[in-house]
Amino acid sequence: MATSVVHMALFKEEQLDEAAEAIQVLRNLGISDKDISVISGTPFSEKMLGRPMAWTSIPLIGGAGAVVGFLVSVFLNFGTPLLYPIQVGGMGLQTIPTSIVLTFELTMLGLLISTFIGVLVETISPSYGPRGYDARVTDGQIAVLFSSGAELDASLHDALSHLGAEIVHGAEDKKLWP
């Protein structure tokens, strides 16, 4: 079994089309999408680079928080007066107009809190794609990181050099913090 090496191809920011072509060339050479990462100082959408859409669980987490907030508000609006009935001035135990406000507020509060927690957890979760960094990415270049076997080195170097890659080499896993 061949060992996998992480490579980096750097493109100038105006070479966005060439970077997208490089990703397609990598796919054609048999490198799967999970072994390809793109880093840049400018946020480019997946569609611009021809990458599959990155799925996240944030909408599900936010929806679950909204449901929990809604259930808490229903309990506070309708359960609490049934558990502790207090007649005030001849009004009914449940008043719908005031219940709507509390239901909306607690539903949105549950949505916001769970979304914040979900984003925080996804941010600190590890990434399993190829990792590396070059200081030129900060200066506006686009880095296409990919891991492949050593047997593809010559063909990868030729294919990416023809597309205008500034440098293709084995990328080091450089940490930003010690």
Account of the 3D structure:
The protein has 178 residues and is of the alpha+beta class. It has two domains: 4-53 and 127-170, 2-Layer Sandwich (Alpha-Beta Plaits); 58-124, no CATH class. The protein has five helices and four strands; from the N terminus they run E-H-E-H-H-H-E-H-E. It has helices at 16-28, 46-49, 58-83, 96-124, 153-162; strands at 4-11, 36-40, 142-149, 168-170. A four-stranded antiparallel sheet has the order 2-3-1-4, covered by helices on one side. Helix 3 runs antiparallel to helix 4. The longest helix is centred in the middle third of the chain and has 29 residues, at 96-124. The model has no long low-confidence stretch (mean pLDDT 80).
Write a concise keyword list for the protein shown above:
single chain, 178 residues, alpha+beta, Alpha-Beta Plaits, 2 domains, four-stranded antiparallel sheet, 5 helices
What's this model, at a glance?
By secondary structure, the protein is an alpha+beta fold. The chain has helices spanning 16-28, 46-49, 58-83, 96-124, 153-162, and strands at residues 4-11, 36-40, 142-149, 168-170. Helix content is 46%, strand content 13%.
List the helices and strands and how they pair.
Layout: E1 4-11, H1 16-28, E2 36-40, H2 46-49, H3 58-83, H4 96-124, E3 142-149, H5 153-162, E4 168-170
Antiparallel strand pairs: 1-3, 1-4, 2-3
